[in-house]
Structure formats: structure tokens, C-alpha cells
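Z., the sequence and structure:
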Amino acid sequence: MKRTARWIGNFLLLAGVGLLVWQFVGTKHTENVREQQLDAFANLKAEAKKEIPSKNRNSTESLEQTKETATAKEVQGKKFGELVGVLSIPQIDIHAPVSYGATPSILDSGFGAIPSEYEPGVQNGSYAIAGHQSHVFGQFFNRLDELQEGSRIDLETVDESQTYEVYEMRIVLPEEVEAIEEEPGIAKLSLVTCYPHNSNKHRLIVMAKRVGN
């Protein structure tokens, strides 16, 4: 009897240690992938600047005006998994790359931009970024519910740095997608995650509008 109890105790101890090691290795892998993606995006941004033709540098049409006329065809031409930006929310310690697409494989390792006809930062347009808040290694959107009206969100794209201000937070059913649709007069950014923690019954939507630039 004592031998059995000792065996069970040793087994539980080893299982606990194994779980901690598994969690540590998984989190470390996620952090390494994130750092690699951040480096890759920095290189992508540097290359994009080099590719701007010199004849266009003095053009009266600004980059902002060019993005305003971005077509659905251009946006849909992106490949799933392609790096499209870096999301930063200092209030909840987020600084992570964003990939195009919201497939399970993309969301298992980071944030994903939900396919849309709009580029980020377009007036009267809407851009949404999804992320898990549990069941993944790393933090992701696990503290998204700590934001409030007035919270700042930064999004760095290949072309520019954009700043947004939260104006509404809403809990909706998964099928209530109208919460991320465009609104007149603003450039809208939505952050989407499951709610509450360890459940996918609802979605927490953080809605923000572009400010300052």
C-alpha cells in the first residue's frame, strides 16, 4: 500500500515537472518566433523604402492619398501568413507582429488580420485584428479586457506608424460581425478575441479610431 502511494506520488511529481517544462518550452518557442517575425518585418519595411522610385518622391500625391484609393483587388492579393504590421499596446504590454489571415495556424502563433477590402488607416474603412486570449503559449490578448475608452493602440505598417484611440468595447455573439464593420467619418480598427477567458461563447470587440496622423 505504501509502495503504491509512493509510486503515485512520484508519478504526479514527474507529471507536474513535465507540464512545467512543456509550458516553458512552448512559451519560449512562441517568443522566438515572435522575435524572428519582428526582425523580418523590420527588414521588409526597410526594403519597401528602398523600392520607392525616386521619381515619385517629389510627387504631389502623398502615401496617405495612395492608400485611400487602395482597391479590394490589391488587398486580396496578400498571402495568408504574410507579415502586414506590428501591433503595440503599452498599457497591456503587447508588442507583436500581425500576419495576414485569421486561420487557426496563424492565431496559434500570433495575431491575424481578418481579410478585408480595406487597408489599415483608411478613412471610412475598417480593419480588424484577431487573437487568442487562452489555450496558446504566450500572452496574446489575455489582457485585452483591461483596456477602456481612451486607451492608445499603435499599429506599424510597412508604410507608416498609425495611432488609434479606443472609443467603445462590446461583448457580442460570434455571429454578430457587424461590430467590426466600417463606420462613416473614421478610420476604424477593431481587436477581436474570445470571451470570457477559457471560453469561446462570446467575442470581446475593442473598437478604436485613428487619431493624430
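The domain at 2-210 is CATH 2.40.260.10 (Sortase; Chain: A;). The CA atoms of residues 133 and 139 lie 7 Å apart.

Let me know what you think.
H.
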